[in-house]
Amino acid sequence: MIDGTPKLKVLLIDDQPDSLNAMSSRLESEGYAPIATSDAQSAWQHLDDGVAVVVTELDVAKTKGVEVVRFAKQHAPHAIVIVVSAEPDIGLAVAAVREGAFDYLTKPVDPSDLVHRIEMALSRRRMAAEIASLHLQLNEKHGLQNMVGNSPAMRSLYEKIRLVADTRSTVLVTGESGTGKELVARSIHHLSKRKNESCIPINCAAIPETLVESELFGHEKGAFTGATDRKQGFFEAATKGTLFIDEIGELELGLQAKLLRAIENRTIMRVGSTKETSVDVRLVAATNRDLAEHVKNGHFREDLFYRLKVVELKLPPLRQRKEDIALLVQHFIAEISADAERPVRDIDTEALEMMKNYSWPGNVRELRNTLEGMIVLSMKPVIEASDLPTHISNHNESQAIIKPGMTMSEIEKEAIRRTLQHTGGNRTKSAEILGISLRTLQRKVKEFGL
């Protein structure tokens, strides 16, 4: 708890006096305001007293199983609920989490662990509020519901999207694989006057080279073997809307010339036809290649390059906006857990720091896929460091604490920071590990601004 802030109320419900007293005493020493009761029925009257957290045994007098959680969430939806059970029961734990419980503990409850879980829950709630607020702001100001990030680089990108969206200018979106180029294209479409029409994506790398022209411009019946009917291409299908051409650097030179003509004249010619067809399409292209270098090497037409690059939007790789990782992780945890019907609700401090320290060569796509792999295999409410793939945990282990040129003060600060990170912010445990008094640790934390 931070000095000077109002004490958060924690409602404790347990029919065992020793357990109740131990939890209450520890919470009070940590700066919380515990309300201890042994009877669920009498405890409910405190739910309207501004209780921030409810810690309840699942089997208390006259109230059974997840009914405790259901009642608490119905009458105090703002409160975080942590359930305690005398026996480990995975089925009961999953049911409790589905009813809205944040965490599940088994007896005997370690008071230090309880404090740690409460702090994690409060941190998650603050993060969830920040994500919700960010999404609301982006939606109201920019219309960017599916993009997550609050870093300066992303805020600059949002503003550029807003400015270019309602023009007819061709846009080239550049960035490494997995950075979210299609999300940018869809946001441009959503903010434009064309938003009620189709936004059609085509990935040049995913279509056989012999079929790309037919896919883009369509073909007439009998134009080639297998062309049994006239087919409309993506340009015609996207008329009055937006056509998003991904991996445009994969187009062969002959098709580049035809694409340039379609952009400049706003007409296309189906394969096998001699008649031009007018199209009204907003074009957004994307690439993870250095097109300027391809122009120099003769692999990409210079005239098409400059025609596409009327406006260029560059997406930063995830390693250059690590301050967004916590937001992205919480966003994906909520999304994936809901889709997979898993109880995962949060990530602990150590695991999150390890994810922040990883370089993410596959960017946001790799981050999401990594989280999905962990979540679908988990029946726990919190992702821990031990759940991370070895390539991420090994990467973190290889990061040395002491580096050449560091001062003793810097080394001390880093040792304290990593120990607090390891204990999830538990200062008592950190002081024990570091071999110093709690008072000394608190002074150092204040001194180093940790």
UniProtKB/TrEMBL annotation:
Keywords: ATP-binding, Nucleotide-binding, Transcription, Transcription regulation. One of its GO terms (molecular function) is ATP binding. PROSITE patterns: RESPONSE_REGULATORY (PS50110), SIGMA54_INTERACT_1 (PS00675), SIGMA54_INTERACT_3 (PS00688), SIGMA54_INTERACT_4 (PS50045). InterPro entries: AAA+_ATPase, AAA_lid_NorR, CheY-like_superfamily, Homeodomain-like_sf, HTH_Fis, P-loop_NTPase, Sig_transdc_resp-reg_receiver, Sigma_54_int. One of its GO terms (biological process) is regulation of DNA-templated transcription. Residues 9-122 form the Response regulatory domain. It comes from the Bacteria. Residues 147-376 form the Sigma-54 factor interaction domain. This is Transcriptional regulatory protein ZraR. It comes from Mariniblastus fucicola.
